Amino acid sequence: MKLTKVAVLVGSIRKESFSKKIALALKEEAPDSLQLDLIDLNKLEMYNQDLDDEGKETEAWKEFRKTIKTYDAVLFVTPEYNRSVPALMKNAIDIGSRPYGKSVWDGKPGAVVSVSPGSMGGFGANHHLRQTLVFLNVPVMQQPEAYIANVFTMFDPNGKLINDKTRGYLKSFMAEYASWVGKLLA
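Above: the chain's sequence. Below: its structure in token form.
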């Protein structure tokens, strides 16, 4: 069995981030064929094309681009801010997609998991992110879709997932993702 390395980008840096809690639960439920690693986005400065054009990319950008290149696939776990993805997530995507023609995302199989305390499960963010990924040539798993609604009810005070129905869903989602990624990378 080939081990597939999956970069997990979490669109929230809040210390009690529901997105991060879901990402950790996904990692826990992933099959042994997947190695999920959460990638720290917190140190990425806002993207400025002038720095790339002048050959002055920041060290954080260089390290991020180099890191993402080492992964086979990518999993995006995002909250929804104003029916879209947070600036943190979009900034990471922009940094990885530049300079033009050197995108670190090109061809990497992806999936989107959106998280919300509301009842729509981050539907807007999920679809907005998918739209961006189409342009970047990231094939995104179509089914099953993952919209995690009412997320505030799913964890104990220590951040441990306590909702068995959600745990089962995350396990089946990760099994489908592993199968799908395996077919694309074969």
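DSSP finds six helices and five strands in the chain.
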